[in-house]
Amino acid sequence: MSYVLNTPADQRAMLQAIGVSSLADLFQAIPAKFRLERPLNVPEALCELDLQQHTEQLAGRNLSADRAVCFLGGGSYDHFIPAVVDAVASRSEYYTAYTPYQAEASQGSLQAFFEYQTLICQLTGLDVANASLYEGGSAVAESVLMAMSIHPKRTKVLIAESVHPEYRRTLATYAANLPIQVATLPTPKGFLDPDDLRKAIDDQTLCVIVQHPNFFGCLEEADALGKVCKQRGALYVVSFDPISLGILKRPGQYGADIAVAEGQCLGNPMVYGGPYLGIMACREEFVRKIPGRLVGQTTDRHGKRCWVLTLQTREQHIRREKATSNICTNQGLFALRAAVYLTALGPQGLRETANLCLQKAHYLADELKKVPGVALAFQRPYFKEFTVTVPGDAAAVIERMLQARIHAGLPARRWYPALANGITIAVTEQRTRRELDAYVAALRGG
């Protein structure tokens, strides 16, 4: 976003409007002992040309995903973004739009949210989707809050160790002062064994949370896990990869009650880790428990199609004790980008994108297994991510790969000490055969 400074005249006009005589008057409420009574130790001002060159030089110290071949994953992926996504989302009426408190005055934004909700329902095979949540981690935590309102007498939450570690930490933060106990189920083989879940689940289990495909890239036994949940009356919460639904079953098809996701992959750039988009969908019977907003379609008194905020369960709209969530910041711009992306690709385009990810990931994995000392960490089916073990320290290997301008993946040891030499690699449709072969050559040390 461009920046133009305020002139002295601008500053005087603003100070006059708020009734103070100087900038110093704005800080009178701060005790004098806490004020800095000397000039800041900063270099002299630069002209615009020199400043731009200086900032570009500083930015150049980062080897971003735009300047190196990216195999990073874990919820943030280097997917192709069609030009139409930026063209629509950068229109001023969307780019500057905020939460529509007066719905009738925000028809364009509301229609965009409605279309987004519709697309997410079609994508997940569930009945209702909200608009929207912060990102994938808080979406997992919000699903538990939602489950608590559905089954208030149950207190036990089971979450697979193969769920994104940061999602699990977000849930732990939310749950710290809530009357629930969160138990993590080990996944030593890279997935949650349905038999292990069957031993751990009981009549006090509120919900079971799995990620499919999971953090290691492995596919979970989604159908079998859902059946175990149903047998004990626990809610089945699934964190999914939206792109994977181009070829994998939809959450609604294997019994998910609540489906959540990180929506970054749907037309949103990586932007150093955020802000992103939290996706949530559920079965119709839970519609009054879902957090955030629901936009509906109706007709006005003249019979024209229009859109309204059908449900507004945020604490800004209703009494705090009645609210399902305090989610309030508008993620509408990211939801809009997701809607444009899904519309641009359509079912066939999403299927082709998912298939490219699948085929390229398996090609790279097959080639890496030919490198001495490299092996798949888990013998499980996978989609676009997989975890390998490498000779020596994984972090050192990743650092060495940077010299070849390759972001080799995520070091698993950061979250899983037992995988000290593990690297989780993500392969999107953007990676070329040449880039995949270059990865193998760099890992060999060639």
What would you say this structure looks like, in words?
The longest helix has 37 residues, at 332-368. Helices cover 35% and strands 15% of the residues. It has twelve helices and 15 strands. The chain has two domains: 69-81 and 346-444, Aspartate Aminotransferase, domain 1, CATH 3.90.1150; 83-342, Aspartate Aminotransferase, domain 2. The model has no long low-confidence stretch (mean pLDDT 92). The strands form four sheets. It has a seven-stranded mixed sheet, with helices on both faces. A four-stranded antiparallel sheet has the order 11-12-15-14, with helices on one face. Helix 6 (136-150) crosses helix 7 and helix 10 (332-368) crosses helix 12 (433-444). By secondary structure, it is α/β, with parallel strands linked by helices. The protein has helices at residues 8-18, 48-59, 83-89, 92-95, 107-124, 136-150, 165-175, 194-200, 222-232, 332-368, 394-402, 433-444, and strands at 69-70, 128-129, 156-160, 181-185, 205-212, 235-240, 258-262, 278-282, 293-299, 305-312, 375-376, 385-389, 406-407, 410-411, 422-426.
